[in-house]
Amino acid sequence: METYIILLLCLAAFFAGFVDAIVGGGGLIQTPVAMILLPNLPVASIIGSLKIPAFSGTSFAAHQYLKKVQMNWKLLFIMAVVAFSAAFLGSHLLTKVSNDFMKPLLLLVLTLIAIYTFTKKNFGQHQEKNLSQKKQLVPAILMSICIGFYDGFIGPGTGSFLVLGFVSILGFDFLGASANAKMVNLATNFGSIFLFVLKGKIIWAIAIPMAVCNALGGFIGAKLALKKGNTFVRKFFLFVVILTLIRFGYDVFWT
Predict the structure, then answer these.
(1) CA angle at residue 153 from 242 to 61, to 5 degrees?
(2) Taking the model in full, what pTM does it have?
(3) What is the DSSP letter of 196?
């Protein structure tokens, strides 16, 4: 593999880690870049290899958040177990079928997310206090199944979907949502990695250098999010959602 290709992949991994640490969705950066630079490789091998840097960056970001943000460990444990299993199944399906039919649906979902976040100014600005753990449990499990399966099957945007779910469904503010979402995202990444390792789909020559760069981006991104606070995270979330919307719109209408 050409050196410049690895360098470009590492650059994409750094920015992916940076974005993912703040609001999630780093896969929306490194996945399209990898698809363009590695056109002759099977999709499952590319996605499988990208799970290693995704896990690396999320781990470093999660470590930073753990120092400053309170975690709901009981809820997170249940969500992580469910999300791991769902991601494993999603990755297994990815090795069997094409995922192109998902793009129009994602385009619609992201459009609604962008409109809602932009128009509802207090969305995710304060922690909701009226949701008991009992009320959170069922929607949290359903969210873990859906997003976990999606992450294993397709992947890009998972972090953003988790943040959105923690905010709109479970009542977290954006900073708390970003922190707790990282822990669930670790579980989904690990579920996919477990499957792809068993299937021999990971290309370690690109996965390892990208993992180092993604981790560095995640470390810097988490530091910035903690320093700038909730309003910054909300604005960054909206920015990433709009870019994601443009990307999926291009895929659906022009490719």
Answers:
(1) 60
(2) 0.76
(3) H
